[in-house]
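Data deposition worksheet. Section B asks for the primary sequence of the deposited chain exactly as it was used as input, without tags or linkers unless they were present during the calculation. Section C holds the resulting structure in token form. Section D is free text for depositor observations; keep each observation to a single sentence. Incomplete worksheets are returned to the depositor.
Section A, Depositor: J.P.
Section B:
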Amino acid sequence: MLVITCISWAAGVTAKDDEKSYESSEMVEVFLSTRVSVSNKVPLHFTGINSVDSLQYAALDTLQRVLTRDLTLSGLFNLRLPNLPVDNSRKNPLADRMTYLDGKFSSDSSHQVEMHLRMPYGAAPFWSETYRFVPERARSVAHRIAAEVIRRLTGEPSVMQTRIAYVVQMGPGKELYSSTFDGFDHQRHTSTGVSNMSPVWSPDGKRIAFTSFINNQADIFIMNVEDNSYVPFAAAPGVDQAPDWSPDGKWIAYSSSVDGNSEIYVRQVEGSETRRLTFSWAIETSPSWSPTGHEIAFVSDRLGNPQIFIMEADGSNQRRLTWEGNYNTSPAWSPRGDLIAYVRRDIDGFQIFVTDPQGKEHLKLTTGPGNNMDPCWSPDGLKLAVLSNRTGRKQIYTMDLYGRHQMRISDRRLSCSSPTWSPVLEADEEFTVNSQIAKP
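Section C:
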């Protein structure tokens, strides 16, 4: 009974829906914009990538199309697209703040694109970067350009160099897969034939901790992403599940029934020290570290039904975060530290909500039809990946932190769940880059 209760807590329970009214989209946008400071977008005109020899290449089309899409999806720019003429007139209120992005494409034995950032229009570039690549790397190059433009103009980390891992139902088992943030380059990481669940990336992006029934019980393993090898981390009798890395990568918080009841523990990744943080008759699970490493959000049914709680990293000062709704689960702490996403069973099913760490305001990001669950944050704290069965099959979607611009990234033929968003990964080494930054 314990295994069934812990593993399927957020997926298989039915009861009376909460009577919860919808918050307006305006309230969501105002509240979240003021908290994460993304309401003032950077004016950017991407004037396009020109071919110096007047030939059209598939790689050029991919570069321009993917770069435009990345800059649009970032949500950080007041973006003017290549099909629009330059408007630096006095009538344009953004003219004096507009940055211009342009490029030149050429091809000989390999492809090359030279990108520039200028301000004002026609000025010498204050940043230039040249990429030489083979045609099949055009998409990766576009992601790299977008990431560099975002970093130069906003200082934000970029999701363009990230991956999303998730669980795929494969016959009787569940295997771990991952793809780029936009749903390309799908890779399979496990082939065990048993259930593998709850993946979570390490802070350095080199490992994934996950729960698996490889040994006919729920244990936690750590996988090396480079070669997909894995080693046991927590394999005590009972159920070990729902791992989450501390921000410094030295500890993993998880739920374990080693002492007979599901409680929250933390254990050293490199070492043997283990600490029990909760002591309750109830089920305690789904720990989520704050980005400072000082606090942990978790789920407990100590009040009769699942609610979100927060405690200090040593288990002290436990306090309740959610008060509305009779079923709240799956907390996910934003990398920015000021928001916690979670799942609430609402009038239209399981939906994604966000709140501040004090639990003062709770805002709904998703609506039916279908359930939206398993939220996880992008490393910049501006996007979420979620599980949704809105089409009748479980799929992974991404959206911005307002719940807008939802995009499916998983294969529509597969049943997927439990997304986890990687940190910004090391730059792709399969193309050469030459950077030039103007001297002040």
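Section D:
Helices lie at 2-7, 25-36, 58-74, 138-154.
Residues 58-74 form the longest helix (17 residues).
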